[in-house]
Structures are given as C-alpha cells and as structure tokens.
Amino acid sequence: MKYNLVAPIAAESLEQQKLIFSCGHKATNGSSWGGLEKTVFANKLAAESGNSFLKIKNKIVSEIGLNLLFLWHFLTDKRYTTMNIHEYQGKEILASYGVRIQRGIVANNPVEAVAAAKQLTAETGTGWHVIKAQVHAGGRGKGGGVKLAKNLQQVEEIAEQIIGMQLITPQTSAEGKKVHKVLIAEDVYYPGESETSEFYMSVLLNRSTGRNMIMYSTEGGMDIEEVAEHTPHLIFTEEIDPAVGLQGFQARRIAFNLGLSGNAFKEMVKFVDSLYNAYIGCDASMFEINPVLKTSDNKIMAVDAKVNIDDNALYRQAKIADMRDIREENPIEVEAKEVGLNYVDLDGTVGCMVNGAGLAMATMDLIKYAGFEPANFLDVGGTADAKRVETAFRIILKDPAVEAILINIFGGIVRCDRVAQGVVDAYKNMGDAIKVPIIVRLQGTNAEIAKELIDNSGMPILSAVQFQEAADQVKAALTK
C-alpha cells in the first residue's frame, strides 16, 4: 500500500496522539502492518498536508515520549524489514503452538472451495461457512472479501466471485490486490450456553525500549482504528521484560481487564501464553488477532491472524520463509530488494535517489515543501557507482507516475565525484529511457569537482548546492 508520509497528525488531544503514535508500524508495502498499527497511523498522516515528517517525528520524541516509532524506525533502519504471510498460514503457526483457531481449508478455485466446505462440515459439523479472500491487507470485509455462505451452492458462487477479483480495501492502493485463493472457514458464531464476545489482541515489538508488548482491547471484531480514535481508554498494553518473558500474572491481568471469569478466564490465560510463545518462536515482529473470540461454550479462539516475520530471522525459519507469496508484494520493491536497494513505493511524482535513510527523509520533506509528493524512498547506500546509480534509475522509472528525479547525495564514505560520474555514465547508458528532468545535489567530499563534472557533461542534468536551490529546481522543472 502507498502512503503519504509527510502530512501532519490531526488528533484532537494529546492522548489521542499518544495512542496514534504508539501504534505506528511499516508503511512500506501495504500489508506489513496490522489494522490498528497501520491504518490509524496512515490515515492520520494522510489527513492533511503541511507539516514535515521530521517535525512529526521530533514531536513524538519531545512532546509525547512514546516508544513505538515503528514507521520512523522502519524507514530509517534498512536492517529491519518484515515478510508478510496469509491468514491461513498465520493460523497454521498458531495451531502448532497450541492456540485454538477457527478451522479452515484453502481453495484455489470454486471446485476446491466446495470440497473444502464438505470436509469442514464432516470434521466440525458446521453448516455455514465463511469465505475469506487471502491477500496481504486488512479490511477485507469492507471490500467484499469476506462473506458468509449458508449452503454449498453459495460457497461455490461466493468463491467464484472473490477468486480473481481486484479487492480494494482501506489498506490497499486504489488498484487493490488480486485475489488468488480463499480460505473456507467454519462458522464459529453458533448459539450455545452463553453469548459470544470478540476481543482485539496483538503482540508487537517496541523498538525504542527493545521490549515486546501485548496490546489488547474489549472492542474486537470491528475497526480497531475507530476504537483508538474515539475510545482509546478501551485499549490496554502489557510490556514484557525480555529477561524473564511473559509472566503468569501478566496473562491473568489481561484476562481480568477483558472482563472474563470462570473457564473463559482460564482459557484466555492459556491463549495469551500460547500466542506469545508463537510470536517468540517464529521470530515475528507482529502477531495481530482480530477478533479473538470467546465462543458460546467459553472457549477462546483466534478467528483471524495477521503475521509479520522479521526478515533477519528467516535464515533459521526455513518453513516460514517458504510461505512467502511474492505475488502479494510490490514488484518494484521486490526487484530493488534483490539488488540490495532499500526502496519504498509512495504516491507522489518526484523520484528520490539518496544515500542514507536520514537524508532520504529530509529529501522527502524538501519535495513536500516544494509543493509536490515523493514517489519513493530509495537509499542507494554507500556504493553509489555508475552501475548502482543506473540500477536505481531503472527502478525509479518503472513507476509511471514519476515526473522528475531528485538525486541528493552526501559524500562521506563515497566521494561526490564518483557519484557524479556514475550519474553521467548511467544517463549515457540509458539513453532515451530517461525522459524526465533530473536534479542532482551533491555535498561533501569533492563536491566542487562533482558539480563541474555534471555541468560540463553536456547532459540535461541540473545541479544544485543548497537544499532550497534543489527544491526550486524541482518546482521549476515540474511547473513548466
């Protein structure tokens, strides 16, 4: 999913701001976040325009002092990336750790869907089935990606409708995501000795303190984003000391705060313990369950599962690594990752090529101040030679929305003249492939030599020295 990363927060109170910022996570490929962590943060950031992202970040630190600066840390630390998996895969992991889950079978076509429904009926006795689109995005129900079937004919009809559709949700781009498979799940909301209840629960990493946190609420099964905005007092957190792990009293406190008693209380304590073990055991950066269901017979069950796995741990999580569905990922980001470039696709028209994540964030601010939107976040790292620059050019230009490219390099480890030569050589090699204006700002080692190289290259490349000069050139290039 694409987000505007440089817009101000429109919260009515400091407490709402605290909650919003405490829930932030990766904005990068639209599916890495959970519903609460992603949508609240993204919607708030995209609500208006004007403030810089750096100012927002500083405001978090100085005024709010909360710890979960997930978006900031993700974008400024390329070592921290995640792999997303489907709901059915997340449930498989949960089940392997003893978490009770809503039973389901994956189907790739309507025929398989009917067969799966028959099998579930035989195994669980369920007469109704829930058909769920399997895509890396939340809010599927709002987009028509989750429907209830009351008989086998409806199972077939609904599966045929969903498989192959472009599912558009609040957490996808305007184009949506193509559905390749569905999960046929049992209906767990059948009547019994007591009413069912839905809760929200997620385990995630607090990057600033280095501790894991369990976030939970009595208001599950709905837009948890709205809960965060309108009734933040209904969301609780439990931070876990890594030296001792989740303690029994913490699991009991969670069950108590959720208003449970009797057998349901005991079941929730077990559920929390097993969920946390699953999170730790598979090296996840987030496990989000929404809803966690208290069934009519007082069992606690995961009805959904949204899971992000830390990329750095995949070397020891071979089975989980095999769960990767590359069709769900942004193809440009996949290509960039394969060649070692840290690239994030955004919604704007000005492509960015920068070395260093901090400078990249400042460059996006620069573009915003010029009255435009960044088309990407791209950190070429410390080896900005001709080959790498050319690769970065080709990746940026794969986005048809790009109307100009701003190259902003600080020459520290890599000399500015080498970068300048790389830009000139890449431009020569690509020929007519580059049809948009290019603005280059180089500062640091051999910056003067670099500027001369560009100015004397005979190429239609604009050079700048100061930030404001670069911003003015971007504006001039796009307003001709």
UniProtKB/TrEMBL annotation:
GO biological process terms, semicolon-separated: succinyl-CoA metabolic process; tricarboxylic acid cycle
Chain sites annotated for binding substrate: 355, 412-414
Cofactor (UniProt): Mg(2+)
Single GO molecular function: succinate-CoA ligase (GDP-forming) activity
Ranges for domain ATP-citrate synthase/succinyl-CoA ligase C-terminal: 353-473
Highest taxon of the lineage: Bacteria
Function of the molecule: Succinyl-CoA synthetase functions in the citric acid cycle (TCA), coupling the hydrolysis of succinyl-CoA to the synthesis of either ATP or GTP and thus represents the only step of substrate-level phosphorylation in the TCA. The beta subunit provides nucleotide specificity of the enzyme and binds the substrate succinate, while the binding sites for coenzyme A and phosphate are found in the alpha subunit.
UniProt xrefs under NCBIfam families: PRK00696.1, sucCoAbeta
HAMAP family: Succ_CoA_beta
Name of protein: Succinate--CoA ligase [ADP-forming] subunit beta
Organism: Flavobacterium lacus
